[in-house]
Design a protein that fits this description.
Blueprint lengths: L1 E5 L5 E5 L11 E4 L2 E3 L2 H8 L31 E3 L9 H4 L25 E4 L2 H4 E3 L6 H4 L5 H11 L8 E5 L3 H10 L6 E5 L3 H9 L4 E3 L1 H11 L5 E6 L4 H10 E9 L11 H4 L5 E3 L8 H9 L9 E5 L4 H9 L1 H4 L3 E5 L7 E2 L3
Length: about 350
């Protein structure tokens, strides 16, 4: 089969690799008919995630079924979660699947081969794959593998968004836009989107942002909108020191800063200013415990998933897709979708 293989910082290639096979009775093998590129993949290529070893197939999104798998069968359409859960360890029993101690967590495209390939092995399949309702198209389902659970859990739920809140989302790439869409479910008074790219700010307005600002304008705008109080919730969805520190300046006393961004460099926590403000600052890796809920909402037409897909490619155009996504400021890319034209979904195959 062909797959996108990581060969060290700044080096990757779409090349032939061995087909994956079932290694444990709880595995399934998925034929990947739709996949996307995550911002985390760009961090990996830059060298920000040193745990990823050269030779790893990138990507986190069934064909062959292990003997112990009970929830999926050959021919099923499935969504593969970006997080793998053993279901038995302390963290999985708490629903904190991202911290799984039983061989799960964020492993696909990180510690084992991922989904930017024609086939992928998914461990612990019963808890790590989800049957797709007939009403959910593959291009919508792909966005529920990662960005929508991340935005919803790590941004909106960790940030404790409530009715009447002022919510600021700093960085309106795909995850930031998904944070805007899911924050709206809680009826905030206003949502402010902050970014440096005009196209992304336009997309934010289309998804329900009430106000937009560049990084230079944001702090003054938030102060003006809140009579100097500051925002109730600020979601950091960039992953650079400057944006995190700006978030801590825009939040009100007693407010929440929800960090979603993947940070490759240290950020300064100004406790000399923050200790007195009663702030809650949360960080987190997505757990994907909300994926079943998001799937139901997508099937009901309540999530604007497909609207985030701006570019589509065939699987063998993976390197071109990476280039377009990495140059989002020039290309206007929000989310890129890769898939084989002859297939409609991810399916399960018999051994």
């Amino acid at each position: 089969m062909k797959a996108l293989v990581f060969h060290g910082p700044g080096k990757s290639a779409w090349e032939a690799v061995p087909d994956p096979g079932v290694q444990e009775a709880t595995d399934v093998i998925v034929r990947v008919d739709a996949v996307t590129i995550c911002g985390t993949d760009l961090h990996i290529l830059k060298g920000d995630v040193p745990e990823v070893r050269p030779g790893t197939v990138l990507g986190h999104e069934v064909v062959e079924v292990g003997d112990s798998v009970r929830t999926v069968r050959p021919g099923d359409r499935v969504l593969v979660s970006c997080i793998t859960a053993c279901g038995r360890c302390r963290f999985c029993r708490e629903g904190t699947y991202g911290q799984c101690l039983g061989g799960g967590g964020w492993i696909l495209g990180h510690l084992i081969d991922g989904t930017q390939a024609e086939y992928v092995r998914v461990p612990h399949a019963d808890l790590s794959t989800h049957l797709l309702p007939g009403a959910v198209d593959s291009k919508d389902a792909v966005l529920l593998a990662d960005i929508f659970p991340t935005a919803y859990e790590v941004g909106v739920l960790n940030g404790r968004v409530r009715p009447g809140d002022t919510v600021v989302v700093v960085g309106v790439g795909p995850v930031g836009l998904a944070a805007i869409a899911t924050a709206r479910l809680y009826s905030p008074e206003r949502i402010v989107a902050v970014d440096i790219a005009p196209a992304r700010l336009d997309a934010a307005k289309g998804l329900g942002a009430d106000a937009v600002a560049t990084a230079d304008e944001a702090e003054q705008l938030v102060s003006d909108l809140t009579d100097g109080l500051g925002a109730d919730v600020v979601v950091e969805a960039v992953g650079v020191p400057e944006s995190f520190e700006m978030c801590t300046r825009m939040v009100r006393p007693g407010g929440h800063v929800a960090n979603v961004g993947v940070h490759g460099k240290p950020a300064t926590l100004h406790l000399e200013n923050l200790w007195i403000k009663n702030l809650t600052i949360t960080t987190g890796l997505v757990d994907t415990y909300t994926t079943p809920t998001l799937l139901r909402m997508s099937a009901a037409g309540r999530l604007p998933t497909a609207s985030l897909v701006t570019h589509t490619f065939q699987m063998d155009q993976m390197e071109e897709a990476y280039d377009v996504f990495a140059r989002a400021g020039d290309t206007g890319a929000l989310k890129v979708l890769l898939g084989e034209a002859q297939h409609d979904a991810l399916t399960v195959r018999t051994p």
